[in-house]
Write a structure and sequence with these properties.
Strands 1, 2, 3, 6, 7, 8, 9 and 10 form an 8-stranded mixed beta sheet that branches. The chain has a 3-stranded mixed beta sheet with strand order 11-12-13. The chain is built from 31 helices and 13 strands. Helix 26 runs antiparallel to helix 27. Among the domains are: 172 residues, 3-Layer(aba) Sandwich (Rossmann fold); 246 residues, no CATH class. The protein is of the alpha/beta class and 632 residues long. One of its GO terms (molecular function) is nuclease activity. InterPro entries: Asteroid (IPR026832), PIN-like_dom_sf (IPR029060), XPG-I_dom (IPR006086). Pfam families: XPG_I (PF00867). This is XPG-I domain-containing protein.
Length: 632
Amino acid sequence: MGIRGLTAYVAARQDACATEVDDLKNVTLGVDLDSFLHFACRELANSYNAQWLLLGGDARALYVWVREWMQPLFKRKIRLKFVRDPPGMLNIIKDVTHGKRRAEKADKTKALMRGLFATTTPSSPQGVDDNITVPAPPSTTTDPSDLVQLTADAATNLMDTQAVFAFARKALVSPFVRCLKHAGCTIVTAPTEADETLGEMVRSKAIYAVVARDSDYLFMYKMRYITLSSIVVDPSSETVRATVFDTDQLAAASGLAPEKLVEWAIVCGNDFTPYVDLHFHLAEALHLPSLRQTQGNYNIGNALVWLQTHLGPSNNWLDDPEFHQLLADDTDLLAHVYGIYSFYGAGDQVKSRFPHASRHSVLSAAEWKYVRKMLDKLMLPSFTIDVLYDQRRSINKRSVLLGLSACPMLAAARAGTYGLLGQTHVEEYETCILTGDRLTRTVQVNPCDMVLKTMNQHAKSKRVHKAKAMVLTWVESSPAVHAAMAAWHPPKKQPDLKYVGYALGMVLASTPVNRLSSPSWMALLLTSVVSICLQKDKRGGFPFASSVGFTRELVELTARFLSSLEALSHVFDILTLHTDVNMHAFYSASLVVYFLSNGPISKSNVRDILLGWSIHRLFRKYCALHPNVDLK
């Protein structure tokens, strides 16, 4: 994210652009939630390895890591305000940039698929060059005994594309929000971009500085910016040190007026310029350097020289007759340029010259108020907004990578959430691993008798019954699992056990028998129930035994379990059930490998592990359902 090369450019001039604060205290910082999530996940993943990520990571370890990261800040009376981006459909100006990123990620994912397993199955769908050889997504045609043997390139790509592992966002945003609020923190969803909202908070003095990892902040007007990696705690004195970048200092060091930083950003090219270049040919119309016109970006230093040569250090570009006339002649272009200037905190420059300028808005004020309530108070997943207002949903890349996006049971679960949102048809889209193209399909949904807008009119007992009825519908393909789940009555005061019980049933019902060995099933079963009991443990994550070999089957199994948990969480969130459940309490990649390496599982050692826990009955039930498990 941000402007290519800007971070390195400013780092080389840090003495002139930043101030070293040796004892940061008694201030309020604004934190870009998405930047923080990626930073935290990457820091945590680096303490493990790519295999740990492939098995789904450990949301509890993330929870503990974040808590430990924040505690020293709280001791120095540093308050935190978290701001997150709005859902995808509210940010259409980045469509072109998102398309380029999809293609880049598709290339990385393709390389990742080549280096996952010791044995691979080539696949070349219609329309794809037959000379391209990549493994097919996991299916019944691949060998479940294929060993996971990550190549160095595959491991690197996995860390790049999957660092935000399953349930990482949910673990941070859902239960952790309560901890944040108890500690005096707040979390809100920005109406446009988190970056822009945080910039406004700095200029209005609501916060001292922004904490993030995004170079766009370095070109914002009147901005103070702290990179996440620069925050360091002295273990002896417990003081917090940080490097604070000031954009006024950057402008002065570069020989520009602070108001011209936005122009520098436009010459360099950013996430917004590809849209106006494609649809309005802005780069060509402004006679930007030919390299900038063809590639979409331009060297930071060269862009500064071009800007100073063509416009001078203080002349405003908006006063250039040609640029001014372009905006005067096209109100649509004016709206987009106004949006770019506003993003960098310079919207008043446009407004003073074009009083009629206005920004494009996807939602009305009343709709946005409702959306904020759903996201910030009800904590609904962001895809619900896309479904409600645009009837579209993007399938996450992990599901596509592991071949789960086409799983009939998970597809039925997604359709169930669309019904609860009051929709009868929704367009799902995903990125093809081989081509990078966007693939779409329309999901037809039967009208639901219980929908989000009137959910508070239904008694809790009816909502609980609705949730179970939906789950039973998803597992109808397996009569044995369906019968067992229908007869099972989860303890009322243990909603976490309900999550695990339903998810395990979904895994059993949707996994072919030849892809579910007894050792893998027992390892997953023990992991899920032990994770519940360890959720309040204050220790960090468990060591990951990377020397233990595991198979494609285990990767598929854990991914299916996590996808089932995710589907359940979406349903329960919309039904406003079990909102206090810790989503980090159900799974750990380290525990899976631990139980896998300490088998075989016997009745005696299971009893030792589960002694005195109410989950013993559930454990025995699912052992009995698996055809190859016999605890004697």
